[in-house]
Amino acid sequence: MKLYYAPGACSLAGRISLHEAGIVAEFERVDMKTKITEQGYDYLSINPRGYVPLLALDDGNAITENIAVLEFIADRDPGLAPGGLLGRTRLIEILSWLSTELHVAFRPFSDSSRAAERANAVDVVAKLLEIISERINELYLFGPRFTVADAYLFAMLRWAGAYGVPVSPEMHGYFERVAERPSVQLALSEEGLPDARSLIDISSFEALI
Ligand SMILES: N[C@@H](CCC(=O)N[C@@H](CS)C(=O)NCC(=O)O)C(=O)O
Fold first, then answer.
1. Element containing residue 56 per DSSP (H, E)
2. Which atom of ligand 1 is nearest to the CA of 30?
3. What is the pTM of this model?
4. What is the pLDDT of residues 124-157, one digit of tens each?
5. Ligand 1 pocket, 51 CB below 6 A?
6. Domain map of the chain by residue range?
7. Which member of 20, 37, 45, 60 lies 3.0 to 4.6 Å from 41 by CB, making a disulfide possible if both were Cys?
8. Contact by Cβ (8 Å): 24, 2
């Protein structure tokens, strides 16, 4: 399979999760401005919506949308999803929140036509992060078990640091815990991103949201 990605974008969550699952995959970079892939293909012919991530399966199927990509990986490695009777429901619940509430709250930072909304977006993102702050005290979003949802939140916390969103000490500690995982270290280095163990050090990354 192959993950289409852009460095530091939300597709980082898929790459981290693939590494966590031990799934061997190829990775093809997409230039978000030209929509041309590393191998010279028109990305819009691969994903007409133009977004990363897209996970291309060996049988020709293509999966778009972070929620679906991360769910697919968690299906392959159930250890990356919360356990229990409501485990999958809880995973979809948090992935939906991360995607439809938190991720979209970052949009003013990447959309030049929404530059006027940026100051407000800092507050909105900060408040959203506060809402989940209480969930990360027992290591990860689902307690001691690292899940694909943590990979997604980690990718967005990098953006929060880059855009000057204030983050609680608890969330900062969470970020550092996730950053220390070998899968995350590998993913960051593969994407040419700084070895971000601290939110403070990440302002140089090329923001792509
Ligand atoms: N709804 C999509 C959104 C993905 C998304 O926003 N991807 C960004 C990178 S984080 C992107 O590809 N942006 C390129 C663009 O807007 O042209 C998903 O959840 O997968």
1. strand 54-56
2. 12
3. 0.94
4. 999 999 999 989 988 999 999 999 999 999 999 9
5. yes
6. 2-76, 81-181
7. 37
8. no
